Amino acid sequence: MSVSIALIPIALTLRLVMGKDKFDRWAESMQVKEPSTFENEHELVRTVRKAGYDAEKWGGSYKTHIDGEDLYFFWELDDGKWTAVFGRSDSRQKIRQFMAAINQAAGRQIFEQLQVQGDTMTMTSATETAESVATFPTNFRDGELLFRTLKDFGVNPVREGSGMKCRVEDSLLIFRQSPSHDSPFYVEVHNAPDLRKVYQYLSDVDEDYKRCLQSMVYEKLKERVEAKNMTVESEEVLEDNSIVLTINIRG
Known about the structure:
The protein is an alpha+beta fold. The protein contains 7 helices and 14 strands. It has helices at residues 2-5, 9-18, 20-29, 41-50, 92-106, 143-152, 195-227; strands at 31-35, 56-58, 61-67, 71-78, 81-87, 114-117, 120-123, 133-137, 158-160, 163-168, 171-177, 185-190, 231-237, 243-248. The strands form 4 sheets. It has a 5-stranded antiparallel sheet with strand order 1-5-4-3-2. A 5-stranded antiparallel sheet has the order 8-12-11-10-9. The protein has a two-stranded antiparallel sheet with strand order 6-7. A hairpin with a 2-residue loop joins strand 10 and strand 11 (171-177). Helix 2 packs across helix 3 and helix 6 crosses helix 7 (195-227). The radius of gyration is 24 Å and the shape is elongated. 22% of the residues are buried. Mean pLDDT is 75; it is low at 1-10 and 115-130.
């Protein structure tokens, strides 16, 4: 969901980590685009509402819910065609039902990828891939600290070579690190029923990892101060939870 992905807070962090071009390519890989044969915007809105769904104006796009408030997608005008942009982890069954309802309401084939054969519906698009894998970078660099953070979250990580894996929200997460030991980890998310829940989980892990890292750096700094025969005169915790130390250097 190209527009909705941008509404997820962690997407802002990913954009900073990856850079605009790489983030845009990653966001594109999270989408499944289904072009329609709607002749114009008016026909799209009328048909979608006739089928019992909503068509809410969203900038130059339209937003449609297909299963309560949790499952929705956006209509975008792509190369002159109104195109339904689904998330790769969205329910295939709900998408098939929606596409069939639209075809029926229009009285013609709006989504050509949907083929009805007797009582069997098949969809020939990429939504039928056997396994979905999303890969994106993280801010994690310290493998031991990451392992401990995941363990504290109660997901029982298992080491796999220089990386680790765990299960979250019925999804398999595999953390891998490039050959360079100082490089950040990237994470593979396998078969996520709802990527948004995984994003939120990773965001929480990221916050806890940062707190643990800050604590570790803080303790090491105090050890160095003591080793060099210096003293900490004061400590101040700022609004962003960073700590400012005032150190007295003995002459």
